[in-house]
Amino acid sequence: MLGAVIRTAFVAFALAATSARADGLALPVQGVRSLERAGALVAGAEDADSLWQNPAGLALLHGDGKRALIFDAAYVYQTVDYAPVDATGGALPAVTNLQPGHPVPTLAGALGIGERLVIAAGMTAPYGAFHRFATDGPERHASVDTSGSQYFVITAGAAYRVTDHLRVGATVQDVVSRLSQTVVVSACTPTAAACDPTDASLDLALDIAQTDYFAPAGSLGLQYSWSPRATFGAMVQSPVRISGTGDLTVHLPSATQFDSATVTGSQAALAFTLPPIVRAGLELRPRADLRIEAALEIDLWSVPGALTLTPDHVQLDNIAGGPYPLGEIAFARHGETSFAPSLGVEWHPPDMMFGAGYAYQTSATPTGEVSVRTVDAAKHVLGFGGGYEASGWQIGAAVGLAFLADVTVSPQEALVLQQAPLRDPTTTVPVNAGRYRSTYVVGGLRFARRF
User: Fold this and answer.
1) Could you report the per-residue pLDDT of 355-411, keeping only the tens digit for each?
2) Which end of the chain is more exposed for a tag (fewer CB within 10 A), N or C?
3) Residue 346 contacts residue 336 (beta carbons within 8 Å)
4) Where residue 42 sits, what CATH number does that domain have?
5) Which is nearest to 415 in space by CA: 425, 429, 404, 426?
6) Range of 21's domain?
7) Cα separation of 415 and 138, whole Å?
């Protein structure tokens, strides 16, 4: 019976493997219990999902033959409302995110080996969002659609109880991704004396589909308990390089000069880096049924750099002055280190548990680089939840909200440039000026079992 449940959960995960924004921006939570505490679950990590919160927490499951299973199912939605303006500050038609949201499952299991060692494995995905906008909208030169992407993390880990006070853990990870994106660039050619960046007849739509089965990563963690009332925890997550060659579909512009044009080549490489992450927390237990943790997450977005799309000998033929090779497209990213302090509280009355948390996360994106591709700002994150807890079971639910500050990018500040890959240089005018408003809504269910 238990094996059937595990197989069913695994299939459900594979079918629902979550989508994430290609740049990797995500909320500072991982898992439904972490959502309940708004991310303040580093020193207090103690279940199989410690694989991602702090692998040292796996050691609390010690005991020869003891087992722990967990299955989370969350749903993440990010509202995006963008009111663009032109180069003179004039209002353009407003757009909104048409993607309704997506599921984020988490599956993990742990096994005690002897009295000190615990091994574990599982799969999860970040609590990020993705988007879909109209192909002919004013936002199209920044991004159109990432809704077909899939992105999840396969993890194996181990933890060791060094002493009654000290626990250490480590994981190895493989980030598996299938990236599906649509972006519109300009087909302005080198022979043109001037090109109108707003000319929709020069829109060159690109569909990118790439799968990367192997992107290695890992993490290290520790926990130290001075007493049953106080525990310190910390972990470090390595950066991840996602890259590979995929299919590139080029949709020719409607301008008459392209009536007889053809496309040679259909491959391109998409590459970007997810940042290293550092987490630390201090959990206090003033009494047996009450837990309070203060934590901090640091996302080093100043490390990664640009997201690049490099066509593999793709060119437009049968055009006057051609052929025209498609040059590299680089979505520059001058990221900033993001800080997310959080505070979480859990109360464990008989047969029940209730929790709540608050986090404040600074923006990882400079104002001038905010676009529909990276709608990011300082955010307030609220989480709360609870459920049944008895006889080795935890069955509960949590809800989270993240309120992003409004961002206004003036025409003078805008740094996201329209791509014109047939020309050299391959960029023209800024395309991200306007006002951005966004909110995350997250809900999830948690099923955990120790036996």
Assistant:
1) 999 999 999 999 999 999 889 999 999 999 999 999 999 999 999 999 999 999 999
2) N
3) no
4) 2.40.160.60
5) 429
6) 2-229+332-450
7) 16
Report if residue 142 sits inside a domain.
Answer: yes
DSSP states of 117-150 as a string?
EEEEEEEE--S----B--TTSTTTTT--B-TT-E
Q: Count Cβ atoms below 10 Å from residue 80 Cβ, excluding itself.
A: 20
pTM: 0.90
Give yes or no for a contact between 161 and 36, defined as CB atoms under 8 angstroms apart: no
User: Cα(117)–Cα(111) distance, rounded to whole angstroms?
Assistant: 9
| Residue among 126, 97, 96 nearest 20 (CA) | 126
Strand (E) or helix (H) holding 170: strand 166-186
Cβ atoms of 235 and 218 within 8 Å: the answer is no
Does residue 198 come out as left (phi exceeding 0), alpha (psi in the -120 to 50 range) or beta? alpha
- Of the candidates 208, 145, 154, the one whose C-alpha atom is nearest the C-alpha of residue 179 is 208
Beta bridge partners of 244: 270
Residue 277 bridge partners (DSSP)? 237, 299
Burial class of 376 by CB neighbour count within 10 A (0 to 12, 13 to 18, 19+): buried
Q: Which two tokens stand for residue 8?
A: 């069913």
Q: Is 55 helix (H, G, I), strand (E, B) or coil?
A: helix
Number of H-type helices and E-type strands within the chain:
3, 26
In a domain, 265, yes or no: no
- How do beta strands 230-237 and 203-212 pair? unpaired
Q: Amino acid identity of 369?
A: E
Please answer whether residues 123 and 175 qualify as being in contact, where contact means their C-beta atoms are separated by less than 8 angstroms. no
Q: Is residue 85 part of a domain?
A: yes
Chain centroid offset of residue 72 CA: 17
pLDDT digits over 87-144, tens only? Answer: 888 888 999 999 888 899 999 999 999 999 999 999 998 888 888 998 888 899 888 9
Chain position carrying tokens 């529909």: 372
Question: Is the Cα torsion angle 213, 128, 292, 68 positive or negative in sign?
Answer: negative
407, 435 contact by CB (below 8 A) = yes
